[in-house]
From TrEMBL:
<feature type="domain" description="Mandelate racemase/muconate lactonizing enzyme C-terminal">
    <location>
        <begin position="161"/>
        <end position="256"/>
    </location>
</feature>
<keyword id="KW-0460">Magnesium</keyword>
<dbReference type="InterPro" id="IPR036849">
    <property type="entry name" value="Enolase-like_C_sf"/>
</dbReference>
<dbReference type="GO" id="GO:0043748">
    <property type="term" value="F:O-succinylbenzoate synthase activity"/>
</dbReference>
<dbReference type="Pfam" id="PF13378">
    <property type="entry name" value="MR_MLE_C"/>
</dbReference>
<dbReference type="GO" id="GO:0009234">
    <property type="term" value="P:menaquinone biosynthetic process"/>
</dbReference>
<comment type="function">
    <text>Converts 2-succinyl-6-hydroxy-2,4-cyclohexadiene-1-carboxylate (SHCHC) to 2-succinylbenzoate (OSB).</text>
</comment>
<feature type="region of interest" description="Disordered">
    <location>
        <begin position="36"/>
        <end position="61"/>
    </location>
</feature>
<feature type="binding site">
    <location>
        <position position="256"/>
    </location>
    <ligand>
        <name>Mg(2+)</name>
    </ligand>
</feature>
<protein>
    <recommendedName>
        <fullName>o-succinylbenzoate synthase</fullName>
        <ecNumber>4.2.1.113</ecNumber>
    </recommendedName>
</protein>
<feature type="binding site">
    <location>
        <position position="235"/>
    </location>
    <ligand>
        <name>Mg(2+)</name>
    </ligand>
</feature>
<keyword id="KW-0456">Lyase</keyword>
<keyword id="KW-0474">Menaquinone biosynthesis</keyword>
<dbReference type="InterPro" id="IPR013342">
    <property type="entry name" value="Mandelate_racemase_C"/>
</dbReference>
<dbReference type="InterPro" id="IPR010196">
    <property type="entry name" value="OSB_synthase_MenC1"/>
</dbReference>
<comment type="pathway">
    <text>Quinol/quinone metabolism; 1,4-dihydroxy-2-naphthoate biosynthesis; 1,4-dihydroxy-2-naphthoate from chorismate: step 4/7.</text>
</comment>
<dbReference type="InterPro" id="IPR029017">
    <property type="entry name" value="Enolase-like_N"/>
</dbReference>
Length: 372
């Protein structure tokens, strides 16, 4: 197998203001695997390609430099004859790098099988969770459900009341039925006012708020008491590792940063309303689908989002969402925040839903040559 790495840098046209600061650009690496494999039905070209993306974001993943260095080692090992699947374990503490390899492998397998990535992911999860009863002969016919699109939320950055309402109205006008507001960057009373204003302006829309770990226990409870009734949940009201505080809050809470900082099972024990699954922060699309299944077993809602990734990882996250039955609205409408992208958008958002690509694999292998 042959492995190649290529760095990229994507500026945001619309920087995202959060309680943690402003996200202005996304730098990352594409990983391309190519194999002349011995599949029953080899691709006409005689090779199969898988492309993965690592777009690290400290706070959720390792830093860029570490990501680049471990991926360069992995690519060299693959070129030297190592089985890439054996290298995944080495990347356990570098989730963005692991994501690139996990996605490249999943894309390669799905492409070789001639199925869209979401079908491969759903199948992979079934056989992982129930190896005894999954008969490979019949499994595929059981899983022929066509998922054409998945529901997505609009993401509204931190801003004053008027701008927040205007932005929310534009999103609702564009067909979004679920909106996520960034909070925690201004005084509590101002955020409560923003939530009240949007929910009064748009009574039919479901709202979420994301505090990006900005509050103390007391502030978080105060916000939930004042605005909780108007919100489906508050994402990450407290610092990532304050599990006891998160578990003690009264009102609906979702975990995001926490999932990148502690064992997933410990996060589930805090009994959140929802878990925000970022494949980039969890080590890859296959892992994200497994964790979604675990959350569901506990009655916890799995919401899929990205760290504002490029087209390769964003499309893969759409496949992850499509592999989860009855997935709730996901934070996947982030293409419009980017000024340029790794390739054409094959999972475009319209009317509050993202189109799920139906070609083989992730469908983004040609992004490799896009900027050439
Ligand atoms: O979930 C969404 O609506 C979009 C993604 C998002 O908010 C986000 C994007 C980059 C980094 C962190 C976050 C976050 O959920 O906190
Ligand atoms: Mg979040």
């Amino acid at each position: 197998m042959n492995a190649e790495l290529r760095p990229f840098s994507l500026p945001l046209s619309d920087p995202l203001d959060t309680a943690r600061g402003t996200i202005e650009r996304r730098d990352g690496l594409l990983l391309r695997l190519e194999t002349e494999d011995t599949a029953a039905e080899p691709a006409p070209e005689g090779v199969t390609v898988g492309v993965g993306e690592a777009t690290p974001l400290p706070g959720w993943t390792e830093h860029y430099d570490e990501c680049e260095s471990v991926l360069a080692d992995a690519a060299e090992a693959v070129d030297g004859g190592a089985d890439p699947a054996d290298l995944l374990a080495d990347l356990d503490s570098t989730s963005a790098a692991r994501h690139a390899l996990d996605l490249a492998l999943a894309d390669l397998h799905a492409s070789r099988d001639g199925v869209p990535l979401y079908r491969y992911l759903a199948e992979y999860d079934r056989s992982a969770s129930d190896p005894e009863t999954t008969d490979p002969e019949t499994a595929d016919s059981d899983l022929c459900t066509l998922v054409k699109s998945v529901p997505v939320n609009a993401t509204v950055g931190d801003a004053g009341v008027e701008e927040t309402v205007a932005e929310a109205e534009r999103a609702a006008e564009a067909g979004f039925e679920c909106l996520k507001l960034k909070v925690g960057a201004r005084p509590l009373s101002a955020d409560v006012e923003r939530v009240e204003a949007v929910s009064e302006a748009l009574p039919a829309v479901e709202f979420r708020a994301d505090a990006n770990a900005a509050w103390t226990r007391q502030q978080a409870q105060q916000f939930l008491d004042a605005a909780g009734d108007r919100l489906a949940y508050v994402e990450q009201p407290l610092p990532a590792t304050d599990l006891a505080g998160l578990a003690a809050l009264s009102g609906p809470v979702a975990l995001d940063e926490t999932l990148a900082a502690v064992e997933f099972e410990d996060g589930l024990d805090a009994n959140p309303e929802a878990v925000v699954l970022k494949p980039m922060a969890l080590g890859g699309p296959r892992r994200a689908v497994e964790l979604a299944e675990r959350a569901r077993e506990e009655g916890i809602s799995p919401v899929v989002t990205t760290t504002i990734d490029g087209a390769v990882a964003r499309t893969a996250a759409v496949h992850v969402a499509a592999a989860i039955p009855d997935v709730p609205a996901c934070g996947l409408a982030t293409r419009k925040l980017l000024e340029s992208d790794l390739g054409p958008d094959i999972a475009p958002v319209a009317d509050g839903r993202a189109v799920v690509p139906q070609g083989a694999g992730n469908g983004t292998a040609d992004t490799w040559g896009y900027h050439d």
